[in-house]
Design brief:
six-stranded mixed β-sheet, 3 domains, 19 helices
Length: about 600
């Protein structure tokens, strides 16, 4: 006998501020379901999940939870009022004999149960809420952006837990790698309708594009039919009025059908404009170190960042990624060593904490009050890449409606705040983008557009992210910070870094043995005795730089192998061509420099 569904949503309707969010929406969650809940920012995903959890009541319809079924919900902003510590909150409702579950989740998710709620960060509160949900082991888990504020190690721990759980779950997440790994079916929220497809997120984008193509075809057929019927009406309706009133009414019905169709929300009209070119060498770090008390953040570290590089910083939370990022752009000074910034730098910063946004300001004032965007004598206009533009028109390009212009920033969702910050950054030209956790809360379509923009951006990109898919698509070099001050440069993105790290110990062993045999096992220190301190560090850094350049060249060659690129996007083709020439020149220079220093070291 088939089991009853865990949860049913039957013909619910919900309206916020006069606009319908859902109308007559229905869905079913069965035992064993592993569902991705996807849709554009603002489509109502989080609201629907709150309805499923019983936290928001629909105007009409009903939500039915199966007999004896426990439903657990992890929200984006948990309320910890009344609890002294994170552990008190996470263990609430558990039998004392089950406390080990909270401790285990605390280790995997990296939060301290003894941390007072009053001093806990937003990320720590979210991790405590996730630990509470995992420890309670409900039959149905509703997870709203569970990977936000988790580092990659914690994300992989959560993946492993969800892979082995017997519970059903519904996940909202921007992390494509996470969704691909875990989901078996997809719920797609689009213009107030939920569609279900029995494929995991890995097949969602192809399914979505197919649905949109079919919709466009039906709309085209409807428009052609209306055009034909309208022509018939104009050419002789007066002579046929009595006999053809039914056909006239049918034409009116067709027009009403077209008027009732809800058009798809477009993608944000993002654009990045690189300012004047920076110098060829953007940043040079020589032997830099950093420590906070007894905690070593960075041991002597060297890197040379050239114009056009795409560099990602990865590692556990608290390891010092943002600290290193700030040192590389001159916002923070190293304890030892030297950082040389290149010439003509114009830096645009997307900060993790969204500190550039004031929650009490309206969206309008957030843009018009920015000194770099203000247009003298024009209260309703802002400067966008040097040209005046009406503030509401610019907000619409980032998918905000006119009614939101005077709303406070604090009323925005996480994804909307990220889009507003991107609007501020992209209004001005730059030649160096610094992105600290830019992917949090953004929908798939906006992430796609951001990746496309970064691929053609003429400037330099420094990036901190825990989104493995985004790292693979954007980064050409990865700085891995693994704790205790260790930072290592690898060529490529996240997947490339993992593969190289697995081989790194073996490769270093082989190289050491080969050099020892060629030089009669002379100590390395003696071999490099003829080098200055700076040259010694440069010789050690060059192999990683050469690997990185080779990886970038391979990616550019792959991009240019598309025969349609030149005809479909000649500007992108030309930029890729210029970048390929520049990378080849830099590779030749790096190889020549390595040979020169190696010969000098050998005396």
């Amino acid at each position: 006998m088939a089991r009853a569904p865990l949860l049913q949503v039957n013909e619910i309707s919900l309206t916020f501020g006069g606009d319908p969010v859902f109308e007559n929406m229905s869905l079913v969650v069965q035992t064993g379901d592993r569902l991705a809940l996807v849709g554009r920012n603002g489509s109502g995903k989080s609201t629907l999940m709150k309805v499923m959890a019983g936290l928001v009541e629909a105007d009409n319809g009903e939500v039915i939870v199966g007999p004896g079924v426990s439903v657990g919900y992890m929200e984006q902003d948990p309320d910890l009022t009344g609890f002294e510590t994170l552990g008190d909150f996470a263990s609430h409702g558990l039998d004392p004999s089950e406390m080990y579950k909270v401790e285990r989740a605390g280790e995997g998710l990296k939060f301290d149960p003894a941390r007072p709620v009053s001093t806990a960060s937003g990320g720590e509160r979210r991790r405590a809420a996730l630990a509470r949900l995992m420890a309670s082991e409900p039959e149905l888990m509703l997870l709203d952006e569970p990977t936000n504020h988790l580092d990659i190690e914690a994300i992989r721990w959560l993946e492993d837990e969800l892979k082995t759980t017997r519970a059903a779950f519904v996940i909202i997440s921007h992390d494509r790698a996470f969704l691909r790994e875990l989901t078996r079916a997809t719920l797609w929220v689009d213009r107030g309708v939920v569609r279900r497809q029995e494929i995991g997120f890995g097949g969602f984008e192809a399914w979505r594009d197919q649905m949109w193509e079919e919709e466009d075809m039906q709309r085209h057929k409807l428009n052609r039919k209306i055009k034909a019927e309208a022509r018939w009406a104009v050419e002789g309706i007066s002579a046929r009025r009595k006999r053809n009133q039914g056909r006239v009414r049918a034409l009116q019905d067709l027009r009403a059908e077209r008027a009732s169709q809800i058009t798809r929300q477009g993608t944000a009209a993002m654009a990045l404009e690189a300012g004047p070119k920076s110098g060829r060498k953007v940043v040079e770090a020589i032997g830099i170190t950093k420590a906070f008390g007894d905690k070593s953040i960075l041991r002597p570290f060297d890197i040379t960042i050239q114009r056009g590089d795409r560099i990602a910083l990865v590692g556990p939370n608290g390891v010092g990624k943002t600290t290193l990022l700030n040192m590389l752009i001159g916002k923070e000074q190293p304890d030892c060593g030297e950082i040389k910034l290149g010439t003509n730098l114009e830096i645009a910063l997307f900060d993790q904490a969204r500190a550039q946004l004031d929650g009490d300001m309206t969206l309008w004032d957030s843009l018009t009050g920015d000194p770099e965007m203000r247009v003298s004598g024009k209260a309703d206009q802002i400067l966008v890449r040097g040209m005046p533009k009406h503030v509401v028109g610019y907000l619409k390009e980032f998918l905000f409606d006119e009614g939101q212009a005077r709303a406070p920033v604090r009323s925005l969702s996480g994804g909307e705040k990220a889009r507003l910050l991107l609007a501020k950054i992209m209004a001005r030209s730059s030649n160096m983008l610094v992105l600290d956790e830019p992917t949090n809360d953004l929908d798939v379509e906006t992430l796609d557009l951001m990746q496309e923009l970064l691929s053609t951006y003429d400037g330099t990109v420094l990036l901190v992210s825990h989104d493995r898919d985004f790292l693979d698509r954007v980064a050409a070099t990865t700085i891995a910070m693994e704790g205790d001050g260790k930072a290592t440069v690898y060529a490529g993105g996240w997947t490339d870094y993992l593969a190289q790290r697995q081989q790194d110990d073996f490769d270093q062993s082989v190289i050491a043995k080969a050099k020892a045999g060629a030089k009669g096992e002379k100590p390395k220190a003696a071999a490099q005795a003829g080098l200055s301190f700076t040259e010694k560090h440069r010789l050690e850094a060059l192999p990683a730089e050469i690997k990185r350049l080779e990886a970038e060249i391979a990616k550019l060659e792959e991009l240019m192998s598309d025969p349609a690129l030149y005809t479909d996007n000649p500007v992108k083709f030309q930029k890729a061509t210029d970048a390929l020439i520049e990378r080849n020149d830099k590779l030749q220079d790096a190889e020549a420099e390595w040979l020169m220093l190696e010969e000098k070291a050998e005396g």
